[in-house]
Amino acid sequence: MRSVSLLAAAFLAALIFVGVAARAQARLLDEAAPKAVGRLNIGGQGHCTASLIAPDLIVTAAHCLRNARTGARWRAERLVFLPGYDRGAYAALARGAEVVVPEDWTPETVARDLAAVLIAPSIDPAPEGVAPFETADLARPGLAVWTVSYGRDRPEAPSREADCEVSARRGDLILTTCEATPGVSGAPVLTDTPDGPVLIAVAVAAANARPPAMRGQAVAVTAGPVLSRLGADLRKEVR
Fold first, then answer.
1. Residue 82's closest CA among 174, 22, 155?
2. 83-107, pLDDT tens digit by residue?
């Protein structure tokens, strides 16, 4: 999870946003967290959080898939998705087959910081308790949201943070009151609906994070046009 204090400052100024509207609960270990959220192990050198949005498709942050040493993208087969990962146990194991990121994404274009990963074999039929999230572009200021993640401080078990809200939105970016720390990148920002939780955004950065803990407010890319195009582009690539 990268710090974007300068970007956040511009973002907040553009929205005439002052302060944080609500304090979220601390991130707490949660054995009952949705198993569609999992740990994405990357090249044996690190991890991020990812979410299942179709039996054969996960979404995470694009910067997670960039080798920090070489600048190259990790090959899909070096990605291992473990839905429901909890202290060595997991509901399934799936390796990456194809990866797609927005054509205009760079490490500086935070509003395009999404990646879709086709997994093989697909999780279909899904193990008990693993159901892909529905996605929808519902983010608006004041909306109650929550997250599940594998932060650097708790990499071995899912942590849920409830009682967050969307603080502000500008285009495809939102600022939330949810906590962001390294490892939370790629985490789903979820909201509850009568039909169950819906993924409305993906956490990609931390606003106002300071050392040593590097904790800040989660900045996320909405589940809107960027995510829709990624899924369509990935399907084209594998035909």
1. 155
2. 999 999 999 999 999 999 999 999 8
What does DSSP say about strands 115-120 and 57-60: parallel, antiparallel, or unpaired?
antiparallel
Q: Which of 126, 136, 131 has its CA nearest to residue 193?
A: 136
Instruction: Supply φ then ψ for residue 169, to 5 degrees.
Output: -140, 140
- In angstroms, the CA 194 to CA 214 distance is 35
**Which DSSP string corresponds to 48-81?**
EEEEEEETTEEEE-GGGGB-TTT-PBPPGGGEEE
10 three-state secondary structure = helix
Instruction: For residue 16, give the nearest of 142, 180, 167 by alpha carbon.
Output: 167
pTM of the complete model beyond 0.85: yes
- For the chain, the straight-line distance linking the first and the last C-alpha, in angstroms and rounded, comes to 33
- List the one residue out of 149, 195, 190 whose CA is nearest residue 166: 190
* Residues contacting 122, CB < 8 A, separation 6+: 55, 56, 94
